[in-house]
Amino acid sequence: MTQSLRSTLTLSLAGVLIPLLLGLGFAIDASVGAALDHQFDEGLAARVRDFATVVEREPDRYELEYDYATIPEYTATERPSYFEIWDSTGAALARSPSLQGVQLPRPELAIDQHIVEDYLLPDGRPGRLAALRFIPRLDEDILPGDAHRYQDPVVIAMAHGTEDVLATHRLVRGWLLLLCGTAVGLALAGAMW
């Protein structure tokens, strides 16, 4: 009788605890994954906005004020990042050396609109692409009365790999599985005892 009661209690506890812990684990996993993705996307969108500040409209051309020494990820040979900037006609103003002849997609956006979306990087890694369409700042040589003639929008796109985010998510998922498995094992051992 005691053995039967113990078995019934153990099975009942397992029947309640396992689905409960699995549901909690899935909820935590989804929350952590969404938070990691959101943080990555916010950082990428901020990088695009920051990089947009290097574009200046001069009377006869665009000036791009950046130095690859300060942005080495666009010249890296391993796990590089990518960028491309286009004028209002779709002509490329600048491209990262890491693109090596490949073009990033140039999305159609409204002025001051940005997007962040999944993108398979040119080297085959999973990544995210952020793009922004904006009016570049005007050179001081452009007179205020002539400013309206130089309001052509520019589009910038940046693509970065997501392997670090995916690795972090896998690590968190592994710890969740370990913790849930340990909790179920301890609860079942306690119920049998």
General description of the model:
42% of the residues lie in helices and 21% in strands. The chain is an alpha+beta fold and 193 residues long. It has helices spanning 2-52, 163-192, and strands spanning 55-57, 62-64, 82-86, 92-95, 114-120, 126-134, 137-138, 154-161. The longest helix is centred in the N-terminal third of the chain and has 51 residues, at 2-52. The model has no long low-confidence stretch (mean pLDDT 87).
A few lines on this structure:
The protein has 193 residues and is α+β, with helices and mostly antiparallel strands. Helices cover 42% and strands 21% of the residues.
| Residue fraction in strands | 15-25%
Largest sheet: 5 strands, antiparallel
Q: Distance between termini?
A: 15 Å
Strand count: 8
- Averaged pLDDT, please? 87
Write the topology of this structure.
Blueprint: H1 2-52, E1 55-57, E2 62-64, E3 82-86, E4 92-95, E5 114-120, E6 126-134, E7 137-138, E8 154-161, H2 163-192
Parallel strand pairs: 1-7
Antiparallel strand pairs: 1-2, 3-4, 3-8, 5-6, 6-8
What distinguishing features does this structure have?
single chain; 193 residues; alpha+beta; five-stranded antiparallel β-sheet; three-stranded mixed β-sheet; 8 strands
